[in-house]
Amino acid sequence: MTTAAQITDADDRWWETRPAGEGRLRGRAHLDSDAPSLCLDGTWDIRVGQRADGSDLGPSHRIEVPGLWQLQGFGAPQYTNIIYPIPRDVPHVPDENPTGHYSRLLEVPGDWAAARADGARILLRFQGVDSAARVWIDGAEVGITAGSRLTQEFDVTDLLTGAGPHLLEVRVVQWSVNTYVEDQDMWWMSGIFRSVDLLLRPVGGIHDLVTDADLDPATGRGTLSVRAFDADGGPLPVQVEIPELGIGQDVPAEGAVIEVGEVAPWSAESPRLYGVRISTPAESVRLRAGFRRVEIDGDIFRINGERIVFRGVNRHEADPVCGRTQNLENQDRDAALMKLHNLNAVRTSHYPPHQRFLDVCDEVGLYVICEGDFEAHGFHADMTGEDGGGAAQRPAADERFREGLVERTDRFVRRDLNHPSIVMWSIGNEAATGPVTRAMIQRVREVDPTRPVIYEQDYLAQDVDVFSLMYPSHAESEEIGRKELSEAFRDRLRSMLEHLGVTPDEDALADPPALTRPFLWIEYAHAMGNGAGALKEYMDLVHRYPSLHGGFIWEWIDHGLLTTDAEGNEIFGYGGDFGERLHDANFVADGLVLPDRTPSPALLDAKHHYAPVGLEVSAGSARLTNRYAFVDLAHLRAEVSVDDQRSWSELALPALAPGGSAEVPLPAHAGPAVTVRLLTREAQGPVPAGHVVVAASYVAPERLAAEYPLPPATVPPVREGRGWRVGPAVLDDLGRLVRLGGLDIEEAGVDLWRAPVDNERAFTEVALESRWKRIGLDAARSRLVSIEAEDAALVVTRRLGLDGSGLGADVRERLSSDGTSLVLEVDVVPSATWPEDLPLPRVGWTLSAPGDLDMIGYLGQGPHEAYPDTGGGTTFGAWASTLRDLQVPYVMPQENGNRAGVVSAHVHGEGRSLDLVMPEGLGLAVRPWSSRELDVRGHDGALRPDGRTWVTISAALHGVGSAACGPVPLPQHVLLARPVSFRFSLTARRR
Ligand code: GAL
Known about the structure:
Blueprint: H1 14-17, E1 32-33, E2 37-39, E3 42-51, E4 60-65, E5 78-80, E6 96-106, H2 113-117, E7 121-126, E8 129-130, E9 132-137, E10 140-144, E11 152-155, E12 166-173, E13 186-188, E14 191-192, E15 196-201, E16 208-216, E17 221-229, E18 235-236, E19 238-242, E20 247-251, E21 256-262, E22 274-280, E23 283-289, E24 294-297, E25 300-303, E26 306-307, E27 310-314, H3 328-340, E28 345-347, H4 355-364, E29 367-371, H5 402-416, E30 422-426, H6 435-447, E31 453-454, E32 467-470, H7 474-482, H8 487-500, H9 506-510, E33 519-524, H10 535-544, E34 548-553, E35 561-564, E36 570-573, H11 601-609, E37 613-617, E38 621-626, E39 636-641, E40 649-651, E41 661-665, E42 673-680, E43 692-699, H12 701-707, E44 718-720, E45 723-726, E46 729-731, E47 737-740, E48 743-744, E49 747-751, H13 768-774, E50 781-790, E51 793-801, E52 808-817, E53 822-830, E54 842-850, E55 855-862, E56 875-882, H14 883-886, E57 899-909, E58 912-927, H15 931-936, E59 948-957, E60 980-990
Parallel strand pairs: 27-28, 27-34, 28-29, 29-30, 30-31, 32-33, 33-34
Antiparallel strand pairs: 1-23, 2-15, 3-4, 3-6, 5-13, 6-12, 7-11, 7-15, 8-14, 9-10, 9-12, 16-17, 17-18, 17-21, 19-20, 19-22, 22-23, 24-25, 25-26, 35-36, 37-38, 38-41, 39-40, 39-42, 42-43, 44-45, 45-46, 46-47, 47-48, 49-54, 50-51, 51-52, 52-53, 53-60, 54-59, 55-56, 55-57, 57-58, 58-59, 58-60
The structure holds beta-D-galactopyranose (GAL).
Beta-D-galactopyranose binds next to loops.
């Protein structure tokens, strides 16, 4: 038998010439059917080469399907965000084109014979092949795929005559004409990464199905419209049963709208599904109908009659081991984590997800914007830094792409339109606009007239139903909410359009249709590393302006890939870790969960600001606002603690209708803090009973300061050798603390530095890191000015200077003691000439002590990290942690782990301890390494404890913002160079 592996495609460069594939069946619904199927997943053979024509295929190896070959030992992953990793040379790709020639034998099940004899067809179904493939059976051509994340089916009946074994061969190329329209911000990896099956399609079977489960919110009555189609696309009569509703009805070929009477509606809050069986004598399919109505009412987006706020996130399919290969467990796990953290919406950025994800969104209740597999961002970026002619050649205006792109749109909408969780379609991401995108939008409307269409790069919302932008500032968002766009914002929109190669429509700019539509942030709050900051302020806008419908945080997960570095450390790799010449570094690690799906503090922050119940606690009461669209608070209960969360008592919760708010009195208490939390009464889906939905504290600063006083200065300083002694503290001749009680101190003093966070690093537009480092803020030098004993204290003044600069700070430390503890009162006065636009990273005080003080207990805001513009969900309490767990293992090391409002802390280990008291509540970070280590290491796995414990107190910190891809910190979160004073005590003990 001739095998296709022997075929070289020298005369047919199919990978460049077939943007619409070949031989595929029209897209149709993915159905849960009782018709037989044969899963072809498992171990296949692969021969790998560098020529798409197959002329240099190497020896045969084994490979897992589904899977990506770069993660199975063949070639390497490459990460670019915007730019193409190959020359932009449409429709061509380089001669060197990693190619995997897959093959396996298959046998047609014997019990399919009778059906085949009756005329049943056999379909070969691929659910995901990146980027294009040519398929053969027994050496005879089957067809060509197009659309990496789209289901493609071929009728292979006539090639599978006899039981077999038959040889199935799939030649997959990494680069194809499709690459130009699949330029999503993720790893470039290839292969058959979703399941492959053979489907037996009985004569008279339900080939395709279009349903719509509608609900009239006024009457609570539902309808189910059903249209079924046979293999030729012809109308098909079916029987429909909904046992729970007592429905059993014949639907004629032309379809019908079935009145189902009163039903429980489907929403993200109560995702009620009804089992539906649709059958013909030849086949039955099972559906789960969720009755709901999606409507656009002027500038309000409604579901079941109510305005919806999208508390959403953008989700790529990623896994540290198998990449975007389907992984069934991850689908359920992600949806569960989202529900546990108060998210109610997902955008499937930037392609249709694995089927199971949509199933689980239906089940647990998540509103989905389902997006097509289309991005062409690289036309708007060029390594020369110029346009490079890309905008003019964009696929959105290139007729060569029309057929393929419209077909993609048709295919992805048809596949998933029976899912109640999908409430909007997006044709794609960052691919500009033009006649082709308009045709795509049109096609969505033809295939599914029931759902709105969104597409961000239609910046003025001239063609779409919902207006969206990515990463607008709070101020711009407010202009949208107020419906008054400033000239500056209009100018920005104009230049954004020009950048796409689109001539701005001045009438539309003057009177934007966008402002008559609902608005949402299709991407915002870029969660790269430590951040994003100011989510609270975004949500405040949503609560203020009805046409602002919330949005989708960028993004769900860090796409780090598990690997080892040159020193053998296990790391989560990012761009550049796999030998790529061209890459975008750690921009691929910007999620709410770390690569292994550990929630990062940003997810906990989002949980708080996305909470369905607003909770503000003051001294004597808690203000509750029901932010659900549909349900009251009967499923929740409340508890209050007045003893730093050591005990809780029940708090009566008022029955609050959606939108309502109430002030709930709190029990009288003498302590400095009170905390309220709301918990679920019963399990719902993945959310267990007793789960905390939202919690908040009120802290009375004066009471705290009174309860945690600093010891009085009773033991005067004395000279000791060339230095000084202040109670338990020994200082050298430069006034530096070198010993405290039983503890050696290696470095101690005022600290103005923190390791930059991703939002401050080089790739941001406003890179603070380089400005900070240029003046040597990371290596400030100290000069002693004076040491004087004053009353019962020692006063040390010094000048912190920066190399090559006249900038710096005057520091005054007043040290005193009661014999047991050392009290420090610190004043920091930055130079009067400090530039106004250059914030300080931190004003604080750091010490390091040799040895592992690896257990920490503290009283303050916890349990997770907090910066001026993050830390939602932290509450005041007594928290305990290991040193390890205080660190946040961001993929790329950076400042992390600060706990806010800490009044006392006990750091201990190896029989020694250090106690801190900070009556005003300051920031505290305790680490096994220095800020410098965090600054210089490229990967969390490469960080090395240096045998010391580093304790950093922060009296003031600069906010983290979102500038890696979004706004800088809001003015109220900027740490301006200004005088800061703070005080604390240190007590060291040895057992
Ligand atoms: C957006 C894009 C996303 C992602 C993000 C930055 O422009 O749509 O795919 O690249 O920026 O992380």
